[in-house]
């Protein structure tokens, strides 16, 4: 193969043409936005899938017969796979929350309904929920949580306290002193 002119139709490129940065740039300019829209049918982070498709194209080293069609196929497959992974992760998280029955105990009061508490936990922002779960179910220290989440131990503590305050408000309680898990 020789040098490929960017002015020529990319769909008409010979199959064994080398992929140059110019060809990648042209394909990206022509198709990236539409590919993201296409991928958004399946996932909420379509740009990641489109980027991965272009990286796969670069790794190919050669221009496919029909590069746009190839990109759409790779983006579709990647988006569907990502959607399946996300759904599986969500199911696993829901199962874990359901299995780890929450008990909020206070002196003289009966425990809060575990289903209500699980919903309140699910409603927390991700960064707060991860700290609560790591602290209560994982038994991690704030220092360990900080290292895991790439934040300071004091930030981990602040998130934990903010999460507990949010849980108190959502559950309509003024206490929330001890949280433990029980096994079914």
Descriptive account of the structure:
- Helix 1 runs antiparallel to helix 2.
- The protein is built from 7 helices and 2 strands.
- A two-stranded antiparallel sheet has the order 1-2.
- The chain has helices at 21-39, 46-60, 67-99, 114-123, 126-136, 142-149, 153-171; strands spanning 101-105, 178-182.
- With 184 residues, the chain is mainly alpha-helical.
Structural class: mainly alpha
Strand content: 5-15%
Rg over CA atoms: 25 Å
**Cα distance spanning the termini:** 66 Å
Describe the strand arrangement of the main beta sheet, using strand numbers: 1-2
Which runs of at least 5 residues are low in confidence (pLDDT < 50)? 1-9, 11-16, 101-108, 177-184
Write a short abstract of this structure.
The chain is built from 7 helices and 2 strands. With 184 residues, it is mainly alpha-helical.
Task: Give me some keywords for this one.
single chain, 184 residues, mainly alpha, two-stranded antiparallel ribbon, 7 helices, disordered N terminus
Q: How do the helices and strands line up, and which of them pair or pack?
A:
Blueprint: H1 21-39, H2 46-60, H3 67-99, E1 101-105, H4 114-123, H5 126-136, H6 142-149, H7 153-171, E2 178-182
Helix pairs in contact: 1-2, 1-3, 2-3, 5-7, 6-7
């Amino acid at each position: 193969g020789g040098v490929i002119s960017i002015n020529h139709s990319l769909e008409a490129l010979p199959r064994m043409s080398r992929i140059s940065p110019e060809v990648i740039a042209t394909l990206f300019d022509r198709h990236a936005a539409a590919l993201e829209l296409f991928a958004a049918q399946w996932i909420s982070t379509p740009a990641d899938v489109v980027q991965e498709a272009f990286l796969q194209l670069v790794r190919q080293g050669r221009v496919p017969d029909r590069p746009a069609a190839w990109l759409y196929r790779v983006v579709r497959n990647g988006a569907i796979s990502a959607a399946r992974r996300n759904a599986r992760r969500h199911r696993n998280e829901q199962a874990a929350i359901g299995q780890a029955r929450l008990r909020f105990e206070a002196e003289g009061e009966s425990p809060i309904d575990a289903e209500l508490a699980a919903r309140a936990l699910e409603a927390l922002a991700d960064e707060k929920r991860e700290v609560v779960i790591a602290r209560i179910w994982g038994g991690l220290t704030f220092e360990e949580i900080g290292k895991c989440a790439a934040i300071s131990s004091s930030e981990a503590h602040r998130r934990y306290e903010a999460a507990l305050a949010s849980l108190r408000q959502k559950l309509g309680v003024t206490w929330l002193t001890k949280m433990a898990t029980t096994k079914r």
